[in-house]
Specification:
The protein is an alpha/beta fold. Helix content is about 45%, strand content about 10%. The chain folds into four domains: about 1-75, no CATH class; about 95-340, Tandem AAA-ATPase domain (Rossmann fold, 3-Layer(aba) Sandwich); about 345-350 and about 435-575, Rossmann fold (3-Layer(aba) Sandwich); about 355-435, no CATH class. Helix 9 packs parallel to helix 10 (about 255-265), helix 10 (about 255-265) packs parallel to helix 11 and helix 14 (about 360-375) packs antiparallel against helix 15 (about 385-400). The relative contact order is 0.09.
């Protein structure tokens, strides 16, 4: 069997028929194709390493052309360099370091990052990142990951290795990157947002030969739309990009569109970094794209190892999984745990158990009664439809506990009438604002009076946009200033110039002299990439969902490095007594503790019930299917 290269194509001539059907099946899995007439097998050059490794391990005899041997030698050299780097990185994580080299990096920080003194955990993360060149930072939210990356970028820039910082992430990260750039590096960034707006204008920037910007910011969706243009931009000889993927859990889906776009541009940068505080929320497969992005020319995890990991995960054999992951990718990332941050403990105040006002209580009890009755007949429906019904019913209960008038609005894929033939209750829902205010709202206003008397800022979290608008209206009727960040609040580059962006609202709120002391926020729109901790130390939860990930993110908005070392964060919860709300909070507290314990280990995976859908279904079973009848 003879192997040759023609440009970027591998050509295999198996005139001796040494390849068995199982061998051909394997290489076809990697994209190789066999010409039935010439009997020649062709494949992509990027699979040469896999092919040679497979043939060697399988004891299949082959010879190669001189051209092919040269490429194999380069691959082997690259693989040796990679393994040496992995060993070196492993030593760093184990505390085996060259003290002279470490001190040189420490001296760099003191000289070139004078605007910000890095914490001890940030110095260690910085040293790890600059030492391995392409690395991941999986530190908990609020630990200062952006500071670490900016410091590494500056070192690479001054060494002439990179000249721009290209960040891909959710729109909410744009503001923090610009702000931290100035705070860490001591200069305002000359930045360009390559997201939203006019595509023709973006294309002009991709092909702009002057390279007049140092910081580029784009979203996953825009990268998907412009991936060919971004690739050409990064291939420009004048561009040496430090390519950063922020909130990298967005690219976890194997063969997902966003993930494929990110992987496509990876090879066009020699310096890459990924950031996420939740690297493996559901499955070990969440890690694969991250490390393939970091090392596209190597194979941190082989296909065989991935198959074994999947098997171990199915069998919940996490010890065996860890034995694969520890030596393979453990050295390639750094993680700072919450307990290492030296923050003041979070203060969770006594729950405010509030008695519902008469009308909202009447509607709530009627819905509870009807759900119990309807649940008995669910078995008559198909499973998928029943799940939609149960999810819709739980949302209805949460709506009722937040703001009764919300029950008038429709829910996608759910049209069940829980108040069938009860016209008087429907009238209450429709005219609720004319008849009553939620008891929670009155309690909230009393609390706000207290915060204002003490001159303290407060963020109010609520899950339903209608509730946020109700709270906003009530606050303004008292003559107080407040603003909201919700799903419909525009982000930068949406083209809605007359409305304030989330970033501007956040900046105004954290300004101690702005006069804006009340922020209303929706966890789905504001729970990541936004920091409030420097001037706001109070958070009130008007209502809750079962989404533990969003809940934990929201807690960290006021509890972060750079302020919370000396200042406690205070949390307040408004709950109606004798309702499902205590169940929601108890569920979140249980999952929060469980998640905190899980993230203390490098490779444990979060249970699926960390996420809202599964929690809602379990809660429904507890409450309406006989497991727990006490509501």
């Amino acid at each position: 069997m003879f192997i040759d290269l023609y440009g970027k194509t591998i050509e295999i001539k198996d005139t001796d028929n040494v390849l068995k059907p199982r061998n051909i099946s394997q290489i076809k899995y990697w994209g190789f194709k066999k010409d039935l007439i010439t009997k020649t097998i062709t494949g992509d050059f990027n699979n040469l390493n896999k092919l040679i490794s497979y043939l060697t391990k399988s004891n299949i005899p082959f010879s190669v052309s001189e051209n092919c041997q040269h490429s194999i030698n380069k691959i082997l050299s690259n693989e040796n360099d990679f393994q040496e780097m992995v060993s070196f990185a492993s030593n760093i994580k184990n505390g085996i370091i060259d003290k002279s080299n470490f001190n040189e990096n420490l001296a760099f920080l003191k000289k070139h990052i004078p605007s910000r003194e890095l914490k001890n955990h940030q110095i260690k993360a910085f040293y790890h990142l600059v030492s391995i060149k392409n690395g991941a930072n999986f530190s908990v939210p609020g630990s200062g990951k952006t500071t670490v990356v900016l410091s590494a970028y500056e070192k690479f820039r001054l060494e002439g290795k990179v000249n721009i910082l290209f960040v891909v992430g959710p729109p909410a990260c744009f503001g923090p990157w610009r702000e931290e750039f100035e705070l860490v590096l001591g200069k305002k960034p000359n930045f360009k947002i390559l997201a939203g707006g006019n595509k023709i204008s973006r294309k002009l920037e991709y092909y702009n030969s002057t390279n007049s910007h140092e910081l580029y910011l784009t979203t996953f969706q825009t990268l998907l739309n412009d991936q060919d243009d971004v690739a050409k931009f990064l291939k420009n000889k004048k561009i040496n990009a430090y390519l950063v993927i922020d909130e990298a859990h967005y690219i976890k889906q194997i063969n997902g569109n966003w993930a494929n776009a990110v992987l496509k541009i990876a090879k066009h940068s020699n310096y890459r970094c990924v950031l996420t505080g939740t690297p493996i929320p559901k499955s070990y497969t969440d890690l694969y794209n991250i490390f393939e992005f970091l090392w596209p020319n190597n194979e941190p995890l082989s296909s065989n190892e991935k198959a074994r990991l999947n098997l171990f995960e199915e069998n919940k054999d996490f010890i065996s999984a860890t034995q694969i992951l520890n030596p393979k990718i453990g050295p390639l990332f750094y993680r700072v745990r919450k307990k290492e941050l030296g923050l003041k403990p979070q203060k969770f105040n006594k729950i405010s158990n509030i008695k519902m006002n008469p009308l909202e209580e009447k509607v709530y009890k009627a819905i509870i009664k009807n759900i119990r009755n309807y649940s008995r007949d669910d078995y008559l429906q198909n499973i998928d439809f029943v799940e939609k019904l149960r999810k819709g019913r739980m949302i209805r209960l949460r709506q009722c506990l937040s703001y009764t008038h919300l029950l008038e609005t429709a829910i996608d894929e759910y049209s069940e009438d829980l108040l069938y033939d009860e016209a008087n209750l429907k009238s209450i829902i429709f005219k609720y604002d004319e008849m009553e205010k939620p008891a929670k709202l009155s309690k909230l206003i009393d609390m706000l009076i207290g915060f204002r008397q003490k001159g303290e800022k407060v963020v109010i979290w609520a899950n339903f946009i209608g509730s946020i608008k109700l709270i906003e209206s009530e606050i303004k009727s008292n003559g107080w200033q407040c603003k909201k960040i919700i799903g419909e609040t525009p982000t930068e580059r949406t083209g809605i110039k007359e409305e304030q962006t989330r970033e501007k609202i956040r900046n105004e709120f954290v300004n101690p002299d702005s006069g804006l002391d009340i922020l209303l926020a929706n966890p789905a729109a504001c729970s990541e990439s936004i920091s409030l901790h420097k001037t706001c130390h109070n958070a009130v939860y008007y209502d809750l969902s079962y989404n533990c990930a969003q809940y934990l993110q929201s807690l960290d908005r006021i509890h972060r490095v750079g302020g919370s070392e000396n200042q406690e964060a205070y949390y307040y919860f408004l709950q109606y007594e004798n309702t499902i709300e205590p169940d929601i909070l108890a569920n979140l507290e249980e999952k929060s503790e469980k998640m905190y314990q899980i993230i203390e280990g490098d490779f444990n995976i979060y249970s699926l019930d960390m996420f809202e859908y599964f929690d809602e279904m379990l809660a429904y079973e507890r409450m309406f299917l006989g497991n727990d009848g006490n509501i």
